[in-house]
């Protein structure tokens, strides 16, 4: 056995030196390196991003409910070694001297916040110092808006219920930023121990009890899975990612894309491996026959080549892991300015997956070719034509597909993604191959009309029809994946960019009295700020559904519908707002006229209220009641940073009701101090700052973008490996033909022209195949997985064939230029 | 008798008919005897050699090799027999390009698991006059040198029978005759039975006996 290992080692080493297995090794290294690098980068980035998302929420996981939460859940979390911080949140009026204001109070304990930073300053809108824990007993921290609304500052006193507190600081940055844009009262943080003294919480009070949890990812996931089934309908469990919907969809899509691209890189490398393993095996049939002739049993032959495969695999895995590590370190280093300072180190997981991937890809894609070696008959030393029997396609494809499916499970890939990619590729391949087949059929006439060498190229393609079609498929597949990854990337990035355009409004002004609008406009003009439009806003509560109280109309469900328990922001509008689309009924003025005022209701709210077009809702606005008829249902994109409304009235319907206005504008970071002047000018206005959240979202999207581009580079590399392997596989045949032609008197110019014509034609077909496949796959992926609009892309049809012709003729030329220039004797000897 | 053949026949199926390559061959070869198989191209010489060496299986008849009936062995048993008792020399040398001259000669010894592979291979390469070129790869050697490595390899496992398929076919006349001398000398020294296929009259005439094949039949 030892001598077989030594022998196999010697043979492998020699194959490596002679370049015989270079492409095989390269493809394997690419597969392993891409898995390791993508795995570690996404692992580190997503844990880093997870940490940032957690900073928003102030925890990794948050449980909320209207009643006190069971103590045993708290205990269970502690038992699982999670950090837990209980929080009590409620709204109440706070009083300072003669001024009073509704505020949202958060009563926190010593561990607050579990994640993210709490910055406390002495002045509104100042930077502040980092703080943890609750304010001391008897002290509170307040948000800047409360400072202007109450006319107080640090050191002053204010009353909450029956207790008196000292203002110990101004919150400049804290977790749990604005969760809803409208109707958020200014915030105040107090010590949980002081809640009882205020005597505010009485039976029936509206209080929000929270448990915030933090801990290792797996512990959080396990705990969440344990807790979820025990929740009642009033309790909600929120993960870090769920906190900001824009972020959630972006991250989910990025995850899906990275998973797919990683898998694609591996699958491509697999194809390259299969192609080069086939060539390797064909070129070793003779060697194997000699070994058999010298008395090696088939078991020994299997062992020798199996061990050889194992050595190769081991070398590739080692090089791949090292390359993967270097690449991910390089990437993280190049991204250091955009990344959080303390990015977690990569876990060992991706390296194990790399090792497993290497072995699996090798077994799935190279083993069938190697197994054929064991079946070589010793008689082949005397009879060259005796090749071992071909493996059943069932075994070959079965192994490859099983390997890919297994890899997919590891990479956490999406089955739908793979299904649609596979289907699109299959349809495109069938159509194009049929077209190429027919065209080759017509090639006989064409080849006679074309000038010498080009005509010869056409007839070559036609003569070796099966081989040509195989090459078109392989080239086309590689190009398809390059195009598709580029296309999806471009559209994903464009989609994210529209979500967060440059200078998107990042500050909202609410509670603006209509009489003060000219003052605001004057202020904005002086500060050179532009607003995105001023919208009217009236607050009202739904009191009847089709003439019945909600409790009667929706027995058992009404108390769990948040929209029925609070005042809604109502607006009116002539135009359908951006990011809204009508799903049922008609937008005015197309809606049929009726006596009652018309409204348009958000679709999901309508579903919860069990109403549709033609039903009525009665609102209580100030002291009056207004019954309106549903004219349309709208789908609203809540991810957009736009003012969105559950209920929109038709113009004029809310005239005469007391209302305020809302507007939004973009404020650059250095203009932040303007807010102090604004509050002095318009003390009653409420400023909602979204800049911090939007900056974070933008930062995370930037990182995701980088990760996506980085993965794309791997896909490109793997595609190039496929191109090289395919070219190399057909090189022997080309060399032999060329040598014969040279001996028959063909000039090297003739050979060169015919070779390039052949590659250009192959590239053209491969490019067309790639374009068609890209469109089909993109349509499937967009509609089913990424939730993006399906469109046709003109540039794909130009880029595909052009790239195909350029890339394949350049790569092909460099790969086989000796075909045209080498001496015929040498060529014949090498290919004999 | 080292080899006894009776009623040997070989047919192969082509697309639409059975092609008879050999029919009713009867012959015997004594231990230490040197036999040349001659005949025109396509007369079945190489097929007969491959059957005698256990590289292929017969359609009919029986081959007794050193009292073992080849027909009754499976492929792995025949491989074992080749490893222990058979040596080969081919027209196109068939050296492994990835191994040095020394390693090529060591190959059959290593496959048989022999501990003295290295020293025995060195000694043999010395005998064929390549003692100075141990670490050369086949592509660094001339045709004659490659064939000498192949001969050293063939004798490495001390075979009972040496089969040679056109051993001088790829060599010029001068080199060919030197190879013949070497082959016959080693054969004499080791007392090996030699069965060779050749077109080379000079080589055939140096053998004890010639078997003439014509259209798959033994004519003399």
Question: Describe it for me?
Answer:
- Chain A is an alpha+beta fold.
- Helices cover 55% and strands 17% of the residues of chain A.
- The two termini of chain A are 34 Å apart.
- In chain A, 44% of the residues are buried.
- Chain B has 220 residues and is of the alpha/beta class.
- Chain B has 7 helices and 10 strands.
- Chain B has helices at residues 45-52, 75-85, 101-111, 117-127, 143-156, 173-190, 201-205, and strands at residues 3-13, 18-29, 34-39, 60-65, 68-69, 86-89, 161-165, 193-197, 209-214, 217-218.
- In chain B, the strands form 2 sheets. A 6-stranded mixed β-sheet of chain B has the order 6-7-8-3-9-10. A 4-stranded antiparallel β-sheet of chain B has the order 2-1-4-5, covered by helices on one side.
- In chain B, helix 3 crosses helix 4 (117-127).
- The two termini of chain B are 19 Å apart.
- The chains are: A alpha+beta (832), B alpha/beta (220).
- The A-B interface holds A 3, 6-7, 10-11, 14-15, 18, 286-287, 289-300, 377-379, 381-383 and B 46, 49-50, 55-56, 75-76, 79-84, 86, 88, 90, 94-99, 103, 107-108, 110-113, 117, 153, 157, 165.
